[in-house]
Amino acid sequence: MHLLAYWRLDNYLRDLDEGAGFNFNSRQARLHTAIELGESLWLFTVCKNPPRFFIVARLVIRSKTMNPPGYRYGDYRVWGDFVVRPENETTESRSEWYSPSDQRRSSRSPAGRPQPR
Hints:
Blueprint: E1 3-6, H1 9-18, E2 23-26, H2 30-33, E3 40-48, E4 51-66, E5 76-80, E6 96-98, E7 105-106
């Protein structure tokens, strides 16, 4: 089953500043039980003033791991396909990041990407 998950804006911005990778962490066990390898986890965030929702990433799940006990974002981690491919290649097996400022797709790492306005 493909899933949609909320990525808190403050966590999203901090993660980008710290060099976020193609993974997502959660305290919810269903992050591991409700999604299978090869399925997509769509991540969205919210800007409250004015109210706007943004899809910020699509992770095509390649692995599920456990974080160390007490990890600040929770016990469960899923990893996306992080192979960078040519922009003109079309395939369903690619994780992608989206910039909230312009909603253009990118398969590059999000580090240093523009922040929402």
